[in-house]
Amino acid sequence: MTDTRLIAVTPARARRKAAEAPERSAISDADRRRPSVKATMTTLQIAFFSFLVIAGVGPILWLAKAALSTTQDTISQPFAWFPSGIQWGNLTAAWEQIQVGRYLANTAVMALGSTISTVVVTASLAYVISILRPRWAKFLSGAILVTLFVPGVISLVPLYLTVVDVPLVGVSLIDTYWAVWLPAAANAFTVLIVTRFFDEIPREIIEAARVDGVGPLRMFFIIVLPFSKSILGVIAVLTILNSWKDFLWPMLVLPGSELQPISVALARIAGKTDLSLQMSAMLLGLLIPIAVFLIFQRQILKGVSMSGGIKG
User: Which domain of life is it from (predicted)?
Assistant: First the structure.
């Protein structure tokens, strides 16, 4: 009885110890215990950490400070700590005078439509390539992969001309949200990520469903989608963040002020509005993507690790 338990427990302990073993580095454990090396490593760690905090959080903190300061303070003493006091009224003034709420609503509509179109097109294409696997699936996958090597600036003019006069339909999508939603759906990077995720679904489940007479459309909804909630959630969060900060394409296809997102609207009114109100409007526009990142940071990091695997 005792021997049987030992045989069952020993491999598990060995695997746990192997997993918990410290990673080897360029500096040995003996050198790390030396006072000079220990002091140098601590100094370097503090320096790198401080640099990362200043580079990452510093601009956001300065924006918050400028948003709650007067214009004179921001211009004359940009790094002083509220010499005229905290101006909480800047936020309400920016909300009312610049109509931040309306532009945030436009941005939310733009991001939501881009997310839905991206998830639908990405999941459909990945399902065809990875699960249905027609004869031309490899050609389609290669064609999608090739588009990753085409710089976005090169395709900007053809894409704009297509939106101005849509082929076969002959209508213009300029100054409509469709001009943003439809190009956002064609994202080769997300297609490849989801395709790779679909490849990991056990083929036995797919084949068993086919034997039971499950059709392709029903298989997509009752088998593939439930398996793919995590990766599609990651794609949705990344698309929301990218749509929120997008500037160039919305500026080209949404020239009217009624539908413009906050990124384009703030640039348009930059020369006509008080600096403190501009900063307050920027801070208000930044709060939502920061909140989305903090809530879904684990899923975002998971998506970044998946993208790194594909690139490698």
Answer: Bacteria
